């Protein structure tokens, strides 16, 4: 098995989808978490200067979703057919488009909070309505078995619900999907044991 080293801040953020995929596949990896204070001296040593990165036997892969897609393919979680794979990719990109609307790195807390409130109140309902319609009464978002799209929904909605707990109350099917993902034994075990970290931009008093 290759030697895997995942580098990110001590946050769930853009690394958590890959941590879910490692947890589910049972592959061993180094969950390397760097301190924010050390970042300025580490940044210039990293190709493209952003994290997460995944080292696979020393080869550096950047971009969180390229990393996660690679791990999903390796673990049979990318979708069972080329069409399912495209649909899983599309759902991940749709959720990611929404997550990137938030000004995670904004320093002015008032501006940041206002932007978060605006997006959660005015833009989230459309995404949730569309995701709920896409899921329908199916067990998983794509095909007949769990894929990384279901994981991404759980990872991102955990962050969103921490910012606005009643966000998805109108969508019990989407909430039930979260429950199904979190009930997978390997995911349940990871959620139990993962470091309790803050959410950049969310409720900083809540250890998530
Ligand atoms: N699209 C990239 C975004 C990477 C990114 O912006 N990472 C942030 C942390 S979430 C980062 O490295 N920030 C520090 C910096 O830009 O110096 C991905 O998904 O990996």
Automatic annotation (TrEMBL):
Protein keywords: Cytoplasm, Fatty acid biosynthesis, Fatty acid metabolism, Isomerase, Lipid biosynthesis, Lipid metabolism, Prostaglandin biosynthesis, Prostaglandin metabolism, Transferase
Localization annotation: Cytoplasm
InterPro entries the record matches: Glutathione-S-Trfase_C-like, Glutathione-S-Trfase_C_sf, Glutathione_S-Trfase, Glutathione_S-Trfase_N, GST_C, GST_superfamily, Thioredoxin-like_sf
Enzyme Commission identifier(s): 2.5.1.18, 5.3.99.2
Reactions catalysed: RX + glutathione = an S-substituted glutathione + a halide anion + H(+); 2-glyceryl-prostaglandin H2 = 2-glyceryl-prostaglandin D2; prostaglandin H2 = prostaglandin D2
Cofactor: glutathione
Cytoplasm listed as a keyword: yes
Domain GST C-terminal: 81-199
Pfam families from the UniProt entry: GST_C_3, GST_N
Any GO BP annotation: glutathione metabolic process
CC per GO annotation: cytoplasm
Alphabetical list of SUPFAM superfamilies matching this protein: GST C-terminal domain-like (SSF47616), Thioredoxin-like (SSF52833)
GST N-terminal domain: residues covered: 2-79
GO function term, MF aspect, one: glutathione transferase activity
Source superkingdom: Eukaryota
Presence of the UniProt keyword Isomerase in the record: yes
UniProt record similarity statement: Belongs to the GST superfamily. Sigma family.
PANTHER family the record matches: GLUTATHIONE S-TRANSFERASE, HEMATOPOIETIC PROSTAGLANDIN D SYNTHASE
Protein name (database record): Hematopoietic prostaglandin D synthase
